[in-house]
Amino acid sequence: MFLLAGLSIRADAIRIVSSLPRTGSANGQTTSMVNGIKMAIAEINGQIAGHTITYEDWDDASPERGQWDPAIEAANAQRAVKDPSIFAYIGTYNSGAAKISMPILNQAHLLMVSPANTYPGLTKPGTGEANEPAVYRPTGVINYFRVVPADDIQGEVAAHFASEFLGVKKVFILHDRELYGKGVADVFKRVAGKLGLTIVGHEGIDPKAANYRSLVTKIRSSGAELVYFGGTTQTNAGQLSKDLVAGGAKVKIMMPDGCRESALIESAGKDNLEGRAYVTFGGLPPSELTGKGQEFYKAYKEKFNAEPEAYAVYGYEAGKVALTGIQHAGKLDRAAVCVAVAGIQDFDGALGKWSFDANGDTSLKVMVVEQIKNGQFVPVKIVGQ
Fold first, then answer.
1. Based on CB atoms within 10 Å of each CB, which residue in 108, 133, 256, 372 is the most buried?
2. Which domain holds residue 317?
3. Strands (E), 132-191
4. How many of the other CB atoms lie within 10 Å of CB of 214?
């Protein structure tokens, strides 16, 4: 038997769980991520030092919201804390969800690895609210790590692309009023202003609205050449895109990585995005991955007979990080696992060679801007490679 915080567990019981939105339109993206986690575990035959690794796929979304639900995310975190056989919590997908679970998991020294959170305030002092990120670390010890670049990089790349590549002068900025969406929109606005772009509008939308016709009228009269939407597919990016076209707004639209999924094209209709929609994403498109990333891409297609969504490889990398921490901890102890992960340097993974910094952020800075053409995401510009 091994001891963990005074509780006994079976020697062969090591569990990893993920908390991701499995209900609603994010399901296609998160299924791809879950597949990546399973591939990481399968590569070591589900064993570490003779102990069996089991994995559970938890949903943090509700049918009522159609996306992540604060109450469910909190319940998932509390459930994980109370189960001494759980040594890693992979999630969340949404930065707002992470804000809820991070302090709960931190108090239990339970490792949390996010494959998708990008809100800077979760980890970086001085980039969010005054109490961030300390409020998410009540013990003062870092247990939260992410394998994806944060929005302070993404928002900056988007603003530079809009100014220098698209050559627009007037921008109307929208956001979904959520932590992630508003956060990336604020970064875009700050950098766009420094670049001399004129912000002709900046407001939050109702992500449950049936349509945005009156808003489109305002956008048209503003003279905007580009609409920047800080939000996700689940917060109505598709409907907004449709209404911009239907309302005759002669604008391009730019969105962050929360919209980089096939569900966006399905909800908006590819004709409403064709040649006018751009999406930023932290990292390379799946087909552009090299080295171990290319090996992952080929193995994924062979195993699932499908193209992986953009975040599949991040699910895989998060899984590899969790397994590495458990393996290198030297004992079945949650705090030791966190220490092991914090020490990861020059990790040779599917995303390339990278390290965690003192805040738990990846050293990777690669960003891609893609245009939607023929119902596909097509790389236009890669930054930081």
1. 256
2. 2-149+289-354
3. 144-146, 170-175
4. 11
Number of structural domains (the chain) is 2
Identify the three-state secondary structure at position 154. helix
pTM of the model: 0.90
Spell out, as residue ranges, where the chain has pLDDT lower than 70.
1-12, 385
pLDDT score recorded for residue 385 = 66
> Are residues 275 and 157 part of one domain?
yes
d(CA 106, CA 295): 34
Structure-block tokens of residue 320 = 């590899």
Could you tell me if 242 and 377 lie in one domain? yes
155 shares a domain with 143: no
DSSP per-residue letters across 198-219: EEEEEEE--TT-S--HHHHHHH
Say if residue 222 is in the same domain as residue 264. yes
> Do residues 155 and 60 share a domain?
no
- Measured CA to CA, the distance from residue 158 to residue 171 in angstroms comes to 12
Structure tokens at 129: 């609210």
Report the alpha-carbon angle 132-134-137, nearest 5.
125
Contact 201, 137 (CB under 8 A): no
User: Which positions ≥6 away from 1 have C-beta within 8 Å?
Assistant: 8, 9, 10, 11
CATH number, domain of 244, equals 3.40.50.2300
CA distance 118 to 262: 20
Residues forming a β-bridge with 245: none
299 and 274 co-located in one domain:
no
- Backbone dihedral region of 223: left (phi > 0), alpha (psi from -120 to 50 degrees) or beta? left
Q: What is the DSSP pairing of strand 51-59 with strand 14-20?
A: parallel
